[in-house]
Design a protein that fits this description.
2 copies of one chain form a homodimer. The first copy, chain A, is of the alpha+beta class. Chain A has 2 domains: 4-66, Arc Repressor Mutant, subunit A, CATH 1.10.10.10; 81-217, 3-Layer(aba) Sandwich (Chorismate lyase), CATH 3.40.1410. Helix content of chain A is 28%, strand content 37%. Chain A contains 7 helices and 11 strands. In chain A, the strands form 2 sheets. In chain A, strands 5-6-7-10-9-8 form a 6-stranded antiparallel β-sheet. Chain A has a 3-stranded antiparallel β-sheet with strand order 1-3-2, covered by helices on one side. The first copy, chain A, is elongated, with a radius of gyration of 24 Å. The first copy, chain A, starts with a helix and ends with a strand. In chain A, 34% of the residues are buried. Strand 11 (222-226) of chain A pairs antiparallel with strand 8 of chain B. The structure holds a DNA duplex.
Chain lengths: 227, 227
DNA sequence: AAGTGGTCTAGACCACAAA
DNA sequence: TTGTGGTCTAGACCACTTG
């Protein structure tokens, strides 16, 4: 009895070796199942896995073909910053910088799809690894989700508090480079204009805006993954 | 008859709503299948999908529990640069800058796990969107995979040629920020020291090094995705 | 030892898109 | 209309892990 992962591996080997060249239509599931010696359901699972990862294009009636221009997908894990630091075997520390209700700039309203310019809770904080600045967290927060009374960010970062209390939201994510401004120079102790890696994340809960955050990392930070 | 995606959606709703709180063990598959009115195989497929995305932790005998500190995963598509430009409804153009055999610096040898410092093919090129600099491609290439005779990068970029001819390799990927050096200033027509978003990618074919490339994007570039 | 998820199978029907 | 992938089902057995 062959596992679908075995079948998948064999099929992938055919693709990589060129036995099934890019663009070519491969036999139907039923035939392949017979050839590989498994049930069609097993074959289906294997091929679907390859299709999910961009190796194959499948269409009902049209059959299955090897992707000609495969769109490679990279998966990044977006962890809690404390865990991220601890994974590097460093000691995490955290310092709250500001926490107050403020009227947000238009860009933030647009990201959160806030029509009215209601006041939002602005939280800025610094994360440190082994005592050195690691990341600046600059956040706008819908106070309905984290009332100042309930959520105190003096000890636990907003980053971590939200992961624990407002889990499983949806949203957008962007990676980019930005120069260090005065505030970042002060917190990260880097040169003015230094190239910094940054992440913008905006999250919603069933259409209701929760938070918009910019994480700016100290110079030299790299976000890495395997393909 | 319920589809596994319907079941998945219902289960996800329970997680998001807090009906199944973080850290809590949920009923066994067989019971859930009965409750949801589907076969266990269908239930399994739905739950497995949620586990793959980090919503659930599943263990044989241990049961299934809602992840307490979910590791959110972001999926980025790494397209061919030409397609990336054309998706933005811009016109793509390409200019080869250099293409010659050179002894690579140690950092490149290390990335490619080349013990001997054999000569590699170095290809640098500029991609343009609507005539404006979009991205600089700086590549070290194992000549065994792309002999100068076979692979001519005057018209088709190495980026695209490799996707077509050396498909389906594995490797590493990193995103980071870097300041513009003299070469980048000249090609991207940006200010010296400007913050630029960059991608390092190193690929192997069954352990054999193929290529190591740095893509550096013009100022303002953002790599975006949904969560 | 026992209970849970992981998977396989065979057969069936459905949904979609190409002919 | 027809052929392909997409999915469901019921039952079975296996593999891992916990007690």
């Amino acid at each position: 009895m062959k596992s679908w992962q075995t079948v998948r591996a064999e099929a992938l080997a055919r693709i990589r070796s060129g036995a099934w060249p890019p663009g070519e239509t491969i036999p139907r599931e039923a035939d392949l199942a017979e050839e590989f010696g498994c049930a069609r359901a097993t074959m289906n699972r294997a091929m679907q896995s390859l299709a999910d990862e961009g190796y194959l294009d499948r269409r009902r009636k049209g059959g299955t073909r090897v992707a000609a221009m495969p769109v490679r997908k990279a998966v990044f894990e977006i962890p809690v910053i404390r865990q991220q630091v601890e994974q590097r075997r460093s000691t995490h520390a955290y310092r709250l910088v500001t926490d107050r209700l403020t009227t947000p700039p238009e860009a933030v309203c647009a990201a959160l799809k806030f029509g009215s310019r209601m006041q939002l809770r602005r939280v800025t904080a610094l994360h440190l690894a082994d005592g050195k600045p690691f990341c600046v967290e600059d956040r706008w927060l819908n106070p309905a989700f984290a009332p100042p009374g309930e959520a105190d960010f003096a000890e636990v970062s907003a980053n971590e508090w939200l992961v624990r209390h407002v889990t499983y939201s949806t949203g957008t994510l962007a990676f980019y480079a930005r120069p260090a401004n005065a505030a970042l120079v002060r917190l990260l102790k880097c040169a003015h204009g230094a190239s910094l890696f940054a992440i913008d994340r905006t999250t919603f809960d069933a259409g209701t805006p929760i938070t918009s955050v910019t994480l700016t990392y100290a110079p030299g930070y790299r976000m890495e993954t395997l393909m």
